[in-house]
Amino acid sequence: MRRWNGWGDERTEVHLPDAGAAFLAARLGPGQPLADASLAEVLAQVPPSRLPEHPLITRDAETRVRHARGQSLPDWLAMRSGAFGVFPDAVGLPETPAQIRALLDWARQQDAVVIPYGGGTSVAGHINPAASPRPVLTLSLARMNQLLDLDEESRIATFGPGANGPQVEAQLRARGYTLGHFPQSWELSTLGGWVASRSSGQQSLRYGRIEQLFAGGTLETFAGSLQLPTFPASAAGPDLRELVLGSEGRFGVISEVRVRVSPLAEQERFYAVFLPDWPRALAGVRALAQARIPLSMLRLSNTIETETQLALAGHPRQIALLERYLALRGAGAGKCLLTFGVTGERRQNALSLRQTRRLLKRFGAVFTGTLLGRKWAEGRFRFPYLRHGLWSAGYAVDTLETATDWGNVDALAQAVEDSLRHGLADQGERVHVFTHLSHVYGQGSSLYTTYLFRPGPDYATALARWRVLKHAASQAIARHSGTISHQHGVGRDHAPYLEHEKGPLGLAALRSLARHFDPDQRLAPGVLLED
Amino acid sequence: MRRWNGWGDERTEVHLPDAGAAFLAARLGPGQPLADASLAEVLAQVPPSRLPEHPLITRDAETRVRHARGQSLPDWLAMRSGAFGVFPDAVGLPETPAQIRALLDWARQQDAVVIPYGGGTSVAGHINPAASPRPVLTLSLARMNQLLDLDEESRIATFGPGANGPQVEAQLRARGYTLGHFPQSWELSTLGGWVASRSSGQQSLRYGRIEQLFAGGTLETFAGSLQLPTFPASAAGPDLRELVLGSEGRFGVISEVRVRVSPLAEQERFYAVFLPDWPRALAGVRALAQARIPLSMLRLSNTIETETQLALAGHPRQIALLERYLALRGAGAGKCLLTFGVTGERRQNALSLRQTRRLLKRFGAVFTGTLLGRKWAEGRFRFPYLRHGLWSAGYAVDTLETATDWGNVDALAQAVEDSLRHGLADQGERVHVFTHLSHVYGQGSSLYTTYLFRPGPDYATALARWRVLKHAASQAIARHSGTISHQHGVGRDHAPYLEHEKGPLGLAALRSLARHFDPDQRLAPGVLLED
Predict the structure, then answer these.
(1) Which residues of B touch A228 (CB under 8 A)?
(2) Which residue of chain B is at minimal alpha-carbon distance from A343?
(3) For B366-376, what is each residue's pLDDT tens digit?
(4) A258–B contact, CB cutoff 8 A
(5) Does A446 fall in a domain?
(6) Could you say which of B236, B483, B505 has the minimum Cβ distance to residue A490?
(7) Which of A238, A263, A288 is the last residue of a domain?
(8) Does A448 qualify as catalytic in the annotation?
(9) pTM of the model
């Protein structure tokens, strides 16, 4: 069963190995475990629903608890402490676009706020109800998870918006296809959520971001249905798909999604390479990203992330052997781990691999074959489970991400890391910070930064520390020309920083669109746009 | 000097060869040349300007004539007959974004309409002033044509919006780079115009459409400046670039354009292949487009276009030899010409070529080497000049384009061709129609249809015939799920058909944006949106 207060299935547990615990204790001090609230304690807090009965909703308390929070660190602290604050008054469970429209009509009659809900994996506060005089109806799309049509000639699949990663891939694989969209949240997050929040998958280098995969579909709004027909390309005015992408529930509820799919690839391989230091690693990865070699993924860890990953892997003896070998070959203390993949036709993959090795040699790369690459692929969705292991050991962990042009990548990475590393200095606390490039483009790269810190003696301290760190990093991103999100979206947590990049006029344009589609401002208020 | 009443430089003349004239006479009847008006006759019609003097504008009559019309067939008929109808009252010639803002302020003071003007190559009525009680200021960006910055690390070039194709490429090539955007109008059309109308170049398979090349920039609107920062990717809400792309001057004037550029390729080759018939040609090209082989262009002519191209090439003896060879190899009367290109690194090009040949062999392809491919590359911008040769011979020519998913390509192509072919039947006139696929995608393809007909005894008949044909083809596109434009934009000519694909709610959203950025509806009225 899915955890009510954490990530994923209860049967999957990822513990922090002893070597990892020692590594963190040396950097942050001993862990500070905090006690968890029980589900019974939380259920006791759930107030009576302010909405009447309706055949398409449930007012059951546990369902309301399970749809009250996402997966951000503040959500985690709320769930662990039991201090949820606000719960939705009911959860709608439509099975068809017509039922979505019926629930929107009903919500208007009830003067309710509506929060569209996919997999509940938001890390930016997208699905949290705020205290409001209006009752809150959370609209779960979970029952709309079917592959409805597959046009093999045009390679377009039509899905319900609530299909999560495994549901999407299982239904496509049975027909010999893949969507190829694998965000780290893949096990739980949904197609509609990916579209609404402009998600990016680990192999977007081959398959494209969700912007490239989303071919059309339907948005149910309070002003009517917006049908987006599928065209391979069009010059017929502004592309309305691009208004739905990133709309985060503010304009409407996505009721059908058409995506571009690919036949399963003939071959897929992942490789690991070590670069001797960050400057050469960065230059090498930029050269690779700009060389148009058809790789399917690239991920470059900086020196501290490389060191941390090796420490947390939990096989100290094998790691020591590996490090001795790498040092002999020139990749010593400053080394950076680069993982890359090829996916596709065998001869093309062989050429891409040869070209990649040749190019990276110029930057001092030490090639280690496919073992570490395979490890990466096997563990690609496990990181969110590790939060449990870290939490039990007494450490809080959060991640944030941005993107910028190559000329600015290093400066932005430094600024974000510094803002976090020294963010709790006045409290005498250290923060362990590391970064990887997760998505590279010809023009620049995303930056994905992880930070660990001690929660302090109680939940209030933990939340206050997070607020300080999140604000410091968000300001660093805005000041150093990063985008406030490369793949997680805006939600509530990033909304205060959005004007910096959209400008007042751009933000006003988005507000005018929100009023156009949702005149009463009933949909996901406070998300994307603060007002 | 640039022609005032036709395409391109006066020194370039492309005549219709005798074999071509005979070919058309056999299909359409003898040509019907019409007499042209002289520039002096047109200048005599230009009324006094309704705008006062201003240091950044000119009210000179010839300049006003030269900025009154684009390159659609109705524009051509207006210019040739001298029946321009409406002229702009003045042409503004700003040299900086600040001067654009100054002219917008001044236009508001004068209660004038403003028409942004790039290269004047619109084939959809984008830049034509309509009769209006408000004076019309056409804003030419021609003086803002410089490369302002080149960030070689991030591969971003910043240009003034008025740089035309040769100006863009010459300034980039001097630094070892290319934009790689080559629409057929490249000699005259401009970067700002490409962005405003969602242009696509002949090698978009490699370099991307202008949507992929446009990284950011600035739009000057009546509500203020909209700055679009450059990010390699972002999940921070809807992408405002996508509102500027395709805005066709309705939201503002593009004052600066940042584009993603590429180093000049190591090698480029174009090849020609003949497929035995249309069904196999279509299936082969779809397989190629979906195989992810990194080609740089693909263009597939249908049987009639292949036949017409060979007839109009003007070397009957060599063509006969070629056709005999092709027939022996299995590509006889129904044959279709496929041109494709590889651009990039030598080893990759060699692999791509091998894979393309292997794939196409399954569809009965006859490979002819690089001669015809070179001919295509040499003549790639000459087609618009041929209109002069055809006109002198007494034939009118127009083109239109759409795009659709693969499952619908053949049906749409047939519907569009049939609507044109029989469009003048009740007048006893034949129409010669042919089509090629100019831009292919995994999901589908563009369709580019050319049609030739006799203008009739006078200009009024010619224009009436065009209206019948254009309406018939546009209705066929809308009814058969095509987009009303793949690369030319909406302008005035396609605006009546836009609601069919955007829907009433989508169109209303665009209207609300137009009011947001331009409260007095002063910019390019009637373009993109009819009201």
Answers:
(1) 506
(2) B292
(3) 999 888 889 99
(4) no
(5) no
(6) B236
(7) A263
(8) yes
(9) 0.97
